[in-house]
Amino acid sequence: MRNPRKALAADGNKCHDAVMSPINYVNPVKMAQDNLEEANRQLAQATTDFAAGRIPEARLLQLHELKDIASADLARVVKEN
After folding, report:
1. N or C: which end of the chain has fewer CB within 10 A?
2. Neighbours of 26 (CB within 10 A)
3. Residues near 71 by beta carbon (within 8 Å), at least 6 away in sequence
4. How far is CA 50 from CA 34, 55, 61, 62, 77, in A?
């Protein structure tokens, strides 16, 4: 079996590696803000769904908890960064 790294490097490029992928920087504050925004969106939909009788109260409470966790996470990330 051929070594995939050697096969990729045969074209002369220095940066080929079959196992490694590029590193993508993720802004932790932006990610936490996006998570909170999504939690708020889901909670708003769940509130409407609960009022219409489409979901149980237990699910609504789960989404309240999710929003609280996302809010606390954002506060933590902002403090750390």
Report:
1. N
2. 7
3. 36, 39
4. 24, 5, 10, 12, 31
10 by Cβ neighbours in 10 Å (0-12 / 13-18 / 19+) ranks as exposed
Place of tokens 């993720």: 26
Instruction: Name the pTM for this structure.
Output: 0.69
Show the tokens assigned to 38.
């999504």
Q: DSSP 3-state assignment of 30? A: helix
CA angle 35, 39, 40 (to 5 degrees): 120
Domain limits, the chain: 25-80
Q: Are 43 and 8 in contact (CB under 8 A)?
A: no
